[in-house]
NADH-quinone oxidoreductase subunit NuoB (Actinomadura bangladeshensis), 161 residues
Amino acid sequence: MRDLFRKIRTTGRAAEAAPRPPERTLPERARDLAGSVQVRHVDAGSCNGCEVEIASAFGPVYDVERYGVRQVASPRHADALLVTGPVTRNMEMALRRTHEAVPAPKVVVALGDCARNCGVFAEAYGVAGAVGDVVPVDVEVPGCPPAPEAIVAALRGLSGR
């Protein structure tokens, strides 16, 4: 045990340096979110591919929380909505109500190709449209599903850290 402590003391910090802060991707009305962003995730009808990548982005490997981004359970506590999937007919009103519950200034992030343009679900019977057809979208993250690095980069753009 003594050798372990000696090794830790002589080695010092072995972590890599933090990456440079990203360019801010916020619209002008949401510049007050600097430093800390509370995110509410809404699954509007996705296949859960994006949810797996979100879990990875918030997990210990990518750890987006170290950049000041946290997931919250209530839209009333959120600064941003992270919406995945095409908006289904059953989720259209729920997404609108969730968007209305988020206090201003608020940001909407459309995560994945399905949220951006309905992806493979375009023109399906149960699909009401893309997220931008239901609520105004500020940031789009492409990919099917987007890589955790892209999710982290988009959320870092919101927090500015």
